[in-house]
Amino acid sequence: MNHALVDGKALADFLNSWAEITIGLPLSVDPKEWPKKSISLQFQEPIVYQSFFFEPKKLYQLKQLAKEDEFAAPYTSFEVISALMWIIRTKAFKIESHKTTKLLTAVDGRLKFKPALPECFFGNGTAWSCAQCMVGDLVQKPFSFAVKIVHEAIKEVTEDYIKSAIDYYELTGGGLEMENTCGISKWSRLTFYDLHFGWRKPQQVVPASMVVNLILTLAQEKDSKNLILSVGLPESVMKIFQELMQSELNRK
Question: Can you list the residues of the chain whose pLDDT is less than 50?
Answer without folding.
Answer: 34-41
